[in-house]
Specification:
The protein is an alpha+beta fold. It folds into 2 domains: 3-111, Ubiquitin-like (UB roll); 118-133 and 143-247, Alpha-helical ferredoxin (Fumarate Reductase Iron-sulfur Protein, Chain B, domain 2). It is 34% helix and 11% strand. The chain is built from 8 helices and 7 strands, in the order E-E-H-E-E-E-E-E-H-H-H-H-H-H-H. The chain has a 5-stranded mixed β-sheet with strand order 2-1-5-3-4. The protein has a two-stranded antiparallel ribbon with strand order 6-7. Strand 3 and strand 4 (73-74) form a beta hairpin. Helix 2 (118-125) runs antiparallel to helix 6 (196-209) and helix 3 runs antiparallel to helix 5. The longest helix has 16 residues, at 232-247. The protein is elongated and about 65 Å long.
Length: 248
């Protein structure tokens, strides 16, 4: 398979970036997208050029670091798939593939395709925790009755990997889907009730401080989310926030 890659190159946070075109040959359809990028970088190194920097870790679709905008879509054309799990059989011989970093003020570019997503960490640090009794009188979580529907929803919300695709897909660069997923995974369980009021207020406040935009109500975030996080989480977070304001 022969491809033409148009890749965003940016030497550093303050450097001026540009799209650079690279021809690439010998790509097999069974290769992953990141394996294809590895081959490109091997070629660049052999030619004495600087390889393309991109973030990755597990390559198993669970760490969320392999964030790339591929032909205008976060993580590429395959739904419910991270970039590392995307295979080249989704493309055709002779295709031109445009590869860019996430575009959001709260995700500044570090180099090439790598962005700083530490704003997500700070949102979680603002309130995504629970008080745990470690005094010796602890209660087994399995002994607390929880409705199966609530447990299932909490588990599904917790599958958010914090990749940032929701932000990249949103025209306002909103982090509402991410933040609401982190709020929901606790709000649905009794263990999360102790800090419930402070949690939602602090996390939403930090989200605004980081510079994320408002929700656009278009649903692009859910469509592009590799884990299928539901829009219902945003509605739940709004209810939690209103309840917290009323109690506060």
């Amino acid at each position: 398979m022969k491809l033409t890659l148009k890749i965003w190159r940016q030497a550093g946070p303050e450097a001026k970036g540009k799209m650079v075109t690279y021809p690439l040959d010998g790509i097999d359809g069974d290769m992953s997208f990141l394996e294809m990028m590895d081959i490109l970088n091997e070629n660049l190194i052999n030619q004495g050029e600087v390889p393309v920097e991109f973030d990755h870790d597990c390559r198993e679709g669970i760490c969320g670091s392999c964030n790339m905008m591929i032909n205008g879509q976060p993580h590429g054309p395959q739904k419910l798939t991270t970039t590392c799990q995307l295979h080249m059989r989704k493309f055709n011989d002779g295709d031109t593939i445009t590869i860019e970093p996430w575009r959001a003020a709260a995700f500044p570019v570090i180099k090439d395709l790598i962005v700083d997503r530490s704003s997500f960490d700070r949102i979680q640090q603002a309130g995504a925790y629970v008080s745990v009794n470690t005094s010796g009188n602890t209660q087994d979580a399995n002994s607390i009755p929880i409705k199966k529907a609530d447990a299932d929803e909490a588990f599904h919300s917790a599958t958010c990997i914090g990749c940032g695709a929701c932000v990249a897909a949103c025209k306002n660069a909103s982090a509402m889907l991410f933040t609401s997923a982190k709020v929901s995974q606790y709000a649905l369980l009794p263990q999360g009730e102790i800090e419930a009021t402070d949690r939602v207020m602090n996390m939403v406040r930090q989200m605004d401080i980081e510079g994320f935009g408002n929700c656009t109500n278009t649903g692009a975030c859910m469509i592009e989310c590799p884990k299928g996080i539901k829009l219902e989480n945003i509605a739940r977070m709004n209810r939690e926030y209103l309840k917290a304001e009323t109690l506060g």
